[in-house]
Amino acid sequence: MITGAGLSEVAYGYWAERFGVAPESFHCAGTVIARDKVLGEAGLVYVYGIGQRSVVRIGAELADGIGLLRLDGDASATLSADELKAMIEPFYPVVTGRSLMICYLDGEQFRPFHGPGNLSARRVHPQWDNELLLDLYDACTEADLDEAEVYVDEPDSVIFGLFDEGLLAAYAGHRYWGETIADIGVLIRPEYRSRGLGKAVVTLLCEWCLDNDVLPMYRAPADHLHSRGIARALGFQEMVVVKTLELETLASAG
Question: How confident is the model at residue 254 (pLDDT cuts 50, 70, 90)?
């Protein structure tokens, strides 16, 4: 079970490897510029608040044009999304997009919720339970599947379900980020929503993760209060905030 300092080591270790910095740097103020050619062409900028540090994913040409590269590795200040927006706006119109909260579960802070007693619970196996999964997918909208990041043709690594007389009512599955982080997706059949099934089915998956030394991770849009409420109720800690800025590309501006 991953707890305390071990949780920070695993969580920050993933982001440190991704952005090429030292894990301990997230415990200190500062800004890192991560150049991304694809984002530059798409007119998108992402600002990650990881611990006390800010990581800006941005096109190199744009970063150079607004004088941002001089802040690369700056250990004196943590650049916020609002501050970056103010730097860009003299050159290009900017719209603030959706923010994403990324949470992790310390095993010692886990508050399990087992929900309605009239439903049965078990692990779901895509090969044997394919018809049950397809029936659940069909009952949900494309937006539901996209938000949960559930892919019909790419089953999650580990899945648990809650069943009502053989009907799959609630689903929680995870995909691995690296070797020890479990990115959780939740899908509830529409007629079973607002009954606490989200917390109950995520509890089952988290129990498996903690028993297998896997760190549960839960991502939710900042404005999706119900989804964030599941994470908070179970004891997840919000450790990373990702904010999106959308602007005209350098190419279209020319």
Answer: very low
Through-space distance between the first and last CA atoms of the chain, rounded to whole angstroms: 53
Helix, strand, or coil (residue 123): strand
The single residue listed with the structure tokens 């200190």 is 28
CB of 249 within 8 A of CB of 41? Answer: yes
Residue 27 has what DSSP assignment?
Answer: G
What is the distance between the alpha carbons of residues 29 and 35, in angstroms, rounded to a whole number? 20
Question: Within a 10 A sphere around the Cβ of 12, how many other Cβ atoms?
Answer: 23
Residues, the chain: 254
66 confidence band (pLDDT: 50, 70, 90): confident
**Three-state SS at 46:** strand
Which residue has tokens 């970056």?
A: 84
Residue type for position 135: D
Residue with tokens 């999650």: 156
Give me the residue spans of the domains in the chain: 4-104+241-253, 111-220
What's the sign of the alpha-carbon dihedral 67, 73, 77, 83? positive
pLDDT higher than threshold 60 for residue 41: yes
Gyration radius of the chain over CA positions: 20
Q: Which residues pair with 175 in a beta bridge?
A: 183
- Report residue 1 as tokens: 């079970």
CATH class of the structural domain 111-220: alpha beta
Q: Cα–Cα distance between 131 and 146 in angstroms, integer?
A: 20
CB of 205 closer than 8 Å to CB of 183: no
Residue 249 is encoded by which pair of tokens?
């590309």
Can you give the pTM of this predicted structure? Answer: 0.89
Structure tokens at 83: 């501050």
pLDDT digits (tens, 9 = 90+) for 102-159: 999 999 999 999 877 889 999 999 989 999 999 999 999 999 888 888 887 888 889 9
